[in-house]
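Per your request, structure below.
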């Protein structure tokens, strides 16, 4: 109860304060939240299809989709986006590494699995530069 009051006094919700604690304990201060890591992976590396149009014939709807592209590729293909913005997008895409993003996502999943198995309060182990692969730690 005292911990909840401390979170409320700071002007944060309990959930945001717990996420801040998770970031500090798990070493994710570089991107701040695991959710942001997921967004980076989805926006830069995960292609998706956009619905172009839907045609209704009675009770049946026929949907026509565009080819699968990443949101970044869609932005680069648009003509109304400034060249300066396109250069920044290309620089950001070149700086990102899909393997490190996936590594961070897998670490978060492992930690969530441990918490779910224990059903105990949130206690995060800082792993540093170690990756968990099939129960073994490698550098």
């Amino acid at each position: 109860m005292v911990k909840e009051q401390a979170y409320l006094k700071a002007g944060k919700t309990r959930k945001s304060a717990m996420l801040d604690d998770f970031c500090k304990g798990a070493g994710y201060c570089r991107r701040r939240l695991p959710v942001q890591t997921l967004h980076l992976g989805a926006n830069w590396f995960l292609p998706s299809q956009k619905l172009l149009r839907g045609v209704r014939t009675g009770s049946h709807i026929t949907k026509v989709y565009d080819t699968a592209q990443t949101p970044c590729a869609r932005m680069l293909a648009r003509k109304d986006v400034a060249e300066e913005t396109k250069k920044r997008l290309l620089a950001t895409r070149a700086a990102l590494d899909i393997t490190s993003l996936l590594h961070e996502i897998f670490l978060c999943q492992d930690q969530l699995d441990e918490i779910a198995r224990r059903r105990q309060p949130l206690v995060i182990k800082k792993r540093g530069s170690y990756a968990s692969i099939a129960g073994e730690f490698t550098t």
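The helical segments are 2-9, 14-26, 34-45, 71-77, 83-95, 98-118.

Regards,
D.
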